[in-house]
Each structure stands twice: as structure tokens, then as C-alpha cells.
């Protein structure tokens, strides 16, 4: 490999992060009223990032290595590294960032504080991509905490008392989780030094270390990450944070924040401990049980919500745990199911949140019972919502079905048949909280005037809001339909599993 | 080595120093305390002579006792003037005095 | 009650300190270097034959420079606080004819004494500080006698005052810079010049220190402020 | 020609010059000279990194007769840190105080303070350190008093009393050490003490002396429970003054304390005493954080935050005292990085807080409502500094905290982990308390005074520096080890 | 020390010890600022005696501590003067001769 190309390989991961980081700086510097320039900057950065990630992804498939290493202080390095798993998450983030940016530009038209919003928004994506491309636990933690910091201003964006209270709850949970995570990482660092991801079952070599100590470290790490992954009982911040503007809920709480937690758990189980060691330590069983419980608990709570976004939030609590469940199943199929859900759930849930935002913006409908007859007024949005909901329930051939199918197979393979029961029960519950909404949208007549109508005639909604919604809905259909084709999410997940976890 | 034994004068001077210091710190009246402090400074100058440090003795007498003393007395005078002047009515008198005797009795 | 507690606490603290110091005094070892002998030996090569002056203005001249800076800081603060809240007209002084008569012959004497102390400082006890203290005392007496130091009144006077205050340390720093630029260590006087340079520094220092000490006395706000005292605040703490 | 005396004499000359110069020249002169001095400071650092520790015998008299200025990596680092913090503060003052009555006193005192700081970093003589401490203390007190308000005067008086008592305790210690060893040069004393060992009869005298000096220096550093004077003084002063006091002045006494402990060596500084200091530091972290949370005024919150942050620095003493070489090195690195991180972040935070107070025209946190829309830059600087104070990545505060965590784990002193983690959460609580008010969108006034951009930029520069230092800490930490006891292998 | 008779220098060093303790006592019990300054000056004198007395005990005249004390005296008078300047200002704006207790 020539010098120039190796330098390029080192700088590419950095460039992916830098696109949104520089965009953030640029946006902060721009004056509030320069919205045209700001939007252009935003979109250009989003497209550039997507292009870079695709480039890098193709390279990774061909076996190229992209890595950057920089010593921060003795014994601790800042490492960026693109592997298949990281690219998967980075790809998801950059695709959805593009759509959400478009959505947010439409959503926040004429709203105050847009400079601040988009600045932190970009910073968020920078952190998320940083998490995806982090090459060791330390670097992961760096971006993980940066994510916390950059989402706070978004959560409290509206500046209302409710938003500020939610922001406080958010901080208490995430900073607390971050502290626990830091403790775990520091402990691990004294035991094993700088644990690089992908160095092959990191800790397995540590024969001398006592089991309880490793179990403690595992508990600390997963406990810290579980806050963002919203695993019961650490999920409390997620429904509260729904006061944030719709794009924030969509991207951050469907993709960035919760997925960062889940992604972290994947890294800890596979890259830090190694699945063999984790299995031997006996920590996977409890994790699977906790995930299963969270799946059912989230669904049950979702049933009881009347606010649409809160219902979606509890649905997220439930769905993210599918990922955790998948990776705590000992076997390639379960893992593939969990990983593919990382992508599928992101696509479906962001669609649902976009739709919820559309309903709220266009009709002023926030509660489930306000949606009666919305389908006739906003057909396109409602079709997208229907696709998302069916996907969540797991109706074939949509994306959600693929996930559940692989999870089920994985559970059978691992000899944990009870998981099938959880999956079935959860699907029934999903149906129980989504189908009534669909019924209201499509089959109930409109009950009087809409709470806060924005357009006089029913023309669905603003194109900038509608376009991304339809796009992500289409993606989730495609992801399910063509799951077996190359470059589909499932394809990626099997590549990841095949390449990294089944040597 | 020139280990001069202490004589009665040194002993007396040491006791005087401690007595004056105690007086400066514990006198009820501030004026008295400051005067005691000035005397203390002069005794210090003597002590420096006994310690074969005439340079310090000169400086102590002029700066330590002299200037510090004058500064303190001047400040005290300032405090008193401020409390006495603007109050023509008799009830002001006790207040003026407590400012000097202040909280030794509280 | 609280007061007794405080006294108890103070007694305990001071007893503890005394006990610790006593232990330290009793247990102290024999010193490992004989610095006095080094001083005695080096004084021959220093700019002043009097060992204390040699220490103050040659061996440890840097300390002395910083010390004058400390004095200047106090004056600067006094000046700044005064100018932040200008005082009323200056009406200080005891208009006493006897005092004035005494002053008329005491004053020249004090200046003479100061000059002698300064001159003698290089060989005998005395030096810049002592001379400055005597000069300052003379100034204080003048003030007490109600004589206004007119040279420092008004805006030009203020500038003159500042210039004289800065003179001492400025000469000091300038000499240091000169030696450093001449390729020697900072404040390392050339052997032939040492005596003269030290005397020059001392002369400048005497003026500055005397003026600084005097300023600290003079700059205290005079009693004309008394009228401004708010009625309600005129109470003392119990 | 050596740079060492210039580092003290330049600011001293500047002080003399600004006493004389007309008011309007002092600000520009201040900024210009600050730039020059920063250049000299960097020059010194380069020399030290290139050629090893530097020494300069003042007056041509070698210690113990004369006084030497010594610059090892630590001293050079502090000199550079001082310039880094003081330069934005000078800029802030030059623009922010222009035309105000306080400007007359500010500039000479600012320069005297800088001279004293550099004097202390470079000094290698016990008594010279005393004079330096006094110069620093009186200049700092004067700066606090400048405002002339009742609050400022009371704060200055309280500060002065603490400073005087502290230096006296130090001076008594100097008297004992001189009597016991016959020299004032730090290098001599370190040699004698190492030679004599613990068994020597004089160790008791040395112990008492070190105890007194430490107590005095703790009072000046405002370690809990001796911190009472700090919040009114730092909270009530002018913004650039608060910044300088919190960032640098209290560090000077800590620096001397560290030098003394290292000089005395492990034999004379038993680990139990180190633990005591560490415990006080821990108490400071929690008490200061708790009090910061309860302040109604913005600058007082920041001042109490200083009380808390000082606590972390005292974890140095128990962690450095252990026999474990790794732990000692990590403690050294971590503490010094924390010191620098706090200096940059706290100076930035005070400047930003000053801008915010200026903008809303009220010192109260509750009046910040809606400020995020109008002064985002100052709020941003406040936030950047806050990130470092909270110890969140990526910031120097975080890197320092990480090193200290590693040191605590390596030495087996697990207690400090709780302090480091819990203290970080507590500081998050008070930093975000400010943001909670700033982000409120309400029926607040929409008219805010707008300070000049340069005021906001100087705060931003410091805040950003506290972040950036965390990412480039490797090289500075290596420089700081030059000539340190770690380099010779004796912790 | 080995001397059976108390040497002059040692005597004054002991006086210095007592003055330090006495000064500290006064510094703690008093709230009036002038009194605290008196206490500070007494303590300062004590430390000066200690410095010279201890250094000279058994070793004869030592010009170094004497020079240090000269420096110390000037520093002490500067500190005292600064304290008085601030004290007068404080008294002028508040009418108090002590500091408020609440901190």
C-alpha cells in the first residue's frame, strides 16, 4: 500500500466525523437569520458524509482497513477504525441524518433558535458516527459522552418548563450512566490496558483475572450503556424526553441515542469480552432475561399511553431490547437478527416519528384519540405510518418480520426456546397498540375540527416533511422485501457476523 | 562560638516584651492597646540590640514602632472622629465609646 | 457562651503552636552549612563592606527588589482606592505654634540623620530602609504640624509623586537589566562599579521608600468624610 | 542572556510603567506586553524542552549565598500557563474596564501579580518564595478591593487576613528550617534531608516546619475547611480579576506546597498526612459542589466551584506518596493536567460569567432567562469551560480525571474513585443549573446589553483551550516531567 | 542545645515562640480589625525573633537572617498599611469595625 493511500485510509474515518463537526462549527458561527446558507451547509455536509461512508463501506467489503491511531496520553489512544459493524451503524446514521435534516428544515421553518438547534444537531451526528467508528472503549466513551452533551440542548430546545424538566431527567440518567460506564472502563483499563475493538476476543487471554471482577466490569459497562439503550429499569428518561421537537425524537431517540447504547452493548459483548468469554462468565443469560422483560414491559406500557409520541417512545423501549436480546443469544443467527434490527428498527421507528410529527404539525393532533379520520386528510403520511406500524408488528414481508424470524431461529439454535414465547407475546402486544391507531386513522370518521390546523384544505403536509417520511417508509419496505439481496441490511448483518464473530 | 549567656537584663526584657504584647492584645481600650504596642516595638528595638543586630534595631524603632504606631493611632483617631463629630445630641456618647472598647465584654 | 468557646479554641490553638514550636526548637539539629562564614568571606568581593548591606543589596538583592515592589503595591492600592472615591478637602493638622517651632529645627536634623544613615549603611549599621524610615517620619511630623506637601498636590503633583515612587525600583531594575545586557548575571555588578551602583540604588530606594511610607500615611482619608456617615450605620457590633 | 530574570523583570517593569503612564495607554500596553511575555514564556519552555532545566544565579552569587532562579519542566509549564491565562484576561480587561475608575489600579496590580507569579514558579529559595507570596497576596487583595464597594472591601479584608496569617505560618517554618539546616536553597535542603534520612534527630523540627508551612499554604490555597475567604473574594471581584485569582493565584501556594513535599521526600511526608490532605480535598469537592449548587449569584457559583475543584488537586498527596511508581507518575500527570485544565476552564468561565452578568445587568442566575438566544457565544464559552470542569470528554478535565482514576486504581486507593466520579456529577449539577435558566424561553426582557465581541472571544479562547488541551496533553505532560523527581526515578 | 546557661539568642528565640502563640491567640479571639492587626504584628515580631535567635544561637552573628528580618519588617509594615487603607474604606462605607460573620 502506498504512503498516500495509507494516509488516506487513516484520514477517511476522521473525515466522516469532521464533515458534521465542521458543519456544526460553521452553523454556530452563522448568524441566526442566514437560514438559506445554513440549510445548504447542512445538506451538503449530510450528502458528503453519506458519500464518504458509502465509499468506506465498499472498501470495507473488499477488505480494506481504515484506521487512525493517536496517543492522547501514555497508555491511552484515540482510535478510529472502520469495520463492518461500525460502517453499518455509521451508514444508518448518515442516511437518516440526511432525511432528518430535510425534515427538520421544514419542521422548524420560522422557529427561533435554529442556529443553536442545527449546530447541536450536527454535533450529535458527529458523536454518533464517532461512536460507530470508535476503535477502542476509550474513544467510544469520548463520543458517547459528547452525545449526551450535544443532545441536551435539543431536548430542552423549546425552553418550556416541561422541556427543562425533561432535560433534567435526561441528564440525571445519562450522566449517571456515563459515570458508571467510566468506572467500568477505568477498571478494565487497569486490568487489561487499552482494549482495542476487533483485536479478537479481547479479554479471553486474561486467564489470571478472577471471574467476579470481570462480571463486575461487565455489569458496570452494560449498566452504563443500558441507560441509553433504555433497558428496564433505566428507561425512565426516554418517554419524558419526547417533549423535544419531532426531528429530535425521530433521529435521536429512534436512532442516535438509544442505538448508541445498544451498539455499545454489542461492542462490549463481542469486541471487548468476546462472545465465548461472556458465555463462560454466565452474563448472557441474565442479559437475555432482562432484555426479554424489557420487550414485554415496554409493550405493555405502550398500550396504556394516550399520547402518540409517548406510545412510540415505549415502543422504542421495547424494540431496542430486541437488539440486546439478539446479541445475548449465543449463536450466529440470533446475532444476525439482533444486528439487523439495529437498522430495521431505525428505519421503521424514524418513519413513525416523522408521521407523528406530521400529524402534530399539520393537524395539531398529539393524542391517539385525536387521530380519528386522519387518513382521509393526510393519506400519504398515513400510508407511511401504516407501513411502519405493520413493520413493527412483524408482518411479512416487511423489515420487522426479518428481524423476528432470525431472532426466533437464533433462539432455537441456542436452545432458548422460551424466547419464541417472548417474541410471539411481544408481536401480539405490538399489534394491540398499533392496530387501534390504524383503525382510528383509516376507519373512524373525523370528530369535529382538528385541534390546530395549519393548512386550510387537506393537502397532506409540507413537502419537506412528507418527502423524508415517504423515503424512510419506502426504505423499510425495501429492506424487508429484498433482504436476501447484496447490500441489504440483512446482508450487512451476516457479513458482520460472518467476518467478525465466527472466525 | 560566642554563646553569650543571658543576663538579668535579657530576662527582664523578655518578660517586658511578653507583658507588652499581652497588653497590646488584651487591653480593653483600643487606645491603650496601641500604646502598649508602640512600647512593645521600642522594647523589640532593644532586643535587637541585644541580639547584636543594630540594623534591625534602627529599622524596628523607626518603622516597626514609629510608623506602624502612628498609622494605627491615626486610624484610631479617624474612627473616633467619625463617631463623635456628626452627633451633637448626648446619646451619641456611649456609642462612641463602645466603638473602642467593643466586644471584649460581649 | 460562644465567646468562651472561642477563647478556649484560641488557647488550644496557640498552646498547640507553642508546643510544636518548642519541640522544634529543642530538637533542632546542627546546621549543615556555615552560611555566616560564607557571607563573611564573600563580603570582601561584594559592593558593600557591611555584611547586612551586602546581603540586602548584593547577595540577595532580588529579594530586596521584590520587597520594594510589595511596598509599592500597598501604595498603588491606596492611590487607586482614593481616586475611586475622591475625598473632600484636606483639613488635617494640629495647628500648634509650639509644634511648628520645634519642627523648624527638628526637620533639618532628621534629614541630616537620614543622609548619614544612608551614607553609613555601606560600612556600618544603617542603610536605605532606616534612612527612608527617618525621612518618612519627618514627613509625618510635617503633616501632623499641618504643613501641606504642596509639591504633590494637584494633577502634576500626583504625577511627580508617582514618578518618585517608581524611581527606586526602576533604578534597581535598570541596573539589573544593564548588567544582564552586559553579559553578566542579572544584578551582578561589575567589581569596580559595585560600590557606586549600590549607593545609587540605595539613594533612589531611600527616596521611594520614604515617599511610599509617607503616602500610606497621607493617603488615608481625612476626617472630612465624617459628614457622609449614614445615620443608621452608626452602631457597633456587640 | 538568560530568559529567567526577564520573566520576572518584564512584568515588574510593566507594573512600574503602568503606574506612571496615562490611563488610556495602559490597556494597549498591557495587551502588547502580555503578547511579548507569552512569547518569552514559550521561549523558555522551548529551551527547557531542548536543553533540560535552566538555572540562573541572580547577582552572580550561587546559592546558598545568593538566590537562584530555576526552571524545570514544571516551572516552565506554569510560566506558559500563566501567560496563556493572563493574555485573554488582559484583553478582557483592556476592553472591559476601559474608562472605568478601577482601571487606574488594575494595570499596575495586574503586572505586579504576574511578576509575583513568575517569581514564584521560578524561585528556588525559601525566603524568596515568602516575598513572592507576599507580593502576590497583596496584589491580589488590592485587585479584589479595587471595586471599592462594601462587599468588595469586606472580601478584600477577609482575604488579606487569611493571606497574612498564611504567610506568617510559612515564615515561621522558614525560620525553623534555616535554623535546622543552615540554608534557604531548596536544592540544598532536599539534599540534606535525603542525606539525613528519617532517623536523624532534626526530622522533628523539619516536620513541625513543614506542618506550619503547609497549614499556611493550605489557608492561601483555600482548601476546605479554610476556604471561607475565597467565595466572597473571587465571586465579588471584577471578571478578569476573578479569573486570574481562581486560575492562577491560588495555584501558587499549591505549587509551593507540592515543591516542599517533593523536596522533603517520602521519609518526612508520611502517607498518613497525604491521606489527610486527600480527605480534605474530597470534602472540598463535595462541600464546594454542594454550596455552588445553592448559590443564587452566578459568579458566586463559579467561585464555589473553585473551592470544589481545588479538592481534586489535593488527591496528589496521597497518590504521589505511594511506593507504586506507576501510580505516582499518573498522579503527577493527572494533578498537573487537572491544574492546567482548571486554570483555563475557570478563567474562561469567570470571563464568560462576567459577560453574562454584564449582558443581563444582574448578578443572579435566575435573571439569565432567555439569554441563550441573545448571548449564545458567552453561554457557549461557559459551557465549554463547564465540560472541562465536569470532567466530561473530550476535555482536559476529563483526561486529567482519567489519569487520576488510573492512579487511584493502580495504588489501590479506591476511595478517591468515588470522589472523582461523584464530584464530576455534582459539578454537572451546578453547571447545568445555569443552563436550565439560560434555556428558558419565557416572557423575559429581550433587551440585553451587548459587550464588545473581544470580551466574548477572550472567554471563548480560554474555554476552547480547556477542551483542546485534553486532546494534545501527551507532549505537555512529557515536558512537565523534565527535571521532576519522576525523571530520576525517586517518587 | 548543649549550653547549660541559656544563651541570649536562645532566650529571645523562646520569647519569639511565646509571642507567636500569644499573637495567634489574639488573632483568633478578636473580631475588631485593628486588634487583629495588632495581633498579626505581634506574631510577626515573634517570628522575626525566632528567625534571628535560632539562627544565631550557638553560632554567632548571622547577617543573613538579619537581612531577612529587615525585609520582613518592611513587608509587615506594607501589609499593615494596606490593611489599614482597606479598613478605613470599609469603615467609611459600612460603619463597621469588624467583618460580617456570615460566610
Describe this structure in words.
The complex is a heteropentamer of chains A (503), B (106), C (238), D (491) and E (103). Chain A is mostly helical and 503 residues long. Chain A has helices at residues 3-29, 35-61, 84-107, 114-133, 137-155, 161-192, 211-229, 237-240, 246-273, 275-281, 284-303, 308-328, 332-363, 374-377, 379-393, 399-413, 418-443, 463-481, 489-501, and strands at 66-73, 76-82. In chain A, a hairpin with a 2-residue loop joins strand 1 and strand 2. The longest helix of chain A is centred in the middle third of the chain and has 32 residues, at 161-192. Chain A is globular. Chain B has a domain at 29-100. In chain B, helix 2 runs antiparallel to helix 3. Chain D is an all-alpha fold. Chain D has a domain at 271-491. Helix content of chain D is 77%, strand content 2%. Chain D has helices spanning 4-20, 23-51, 73-96, 103-122, 126-145, 150-181, 186-196, 203-221, 230-236, 239-268, 271-294, 298-313, 316-320, 325-360, 371-374, 376-390, 396-411, 415-438, 453-471, 474-480, 485-488; strands spanning 54-57, 68-71. Chain D has a two-stranded antiparallel sheet. By secondary structure, chain E is mainly α. Chain E has a single domain (8-94), classed as Helix Hairpins, CATH 1.10.287.3510. In chain E, helix 2 (33-56) runs antiparallel to helix 3 (63-94). The longest helix of chain E has 32 residues, at 63-94. Chain E starts with 7 loop residues before the first helix and ends in a 9-residue tail after the last helix. Chains C and D meet through helix 1, helix 2, helix 4 and helix 7 of C and helix 1, helix 4, helix 5, helix 6 and helix 7 of D.
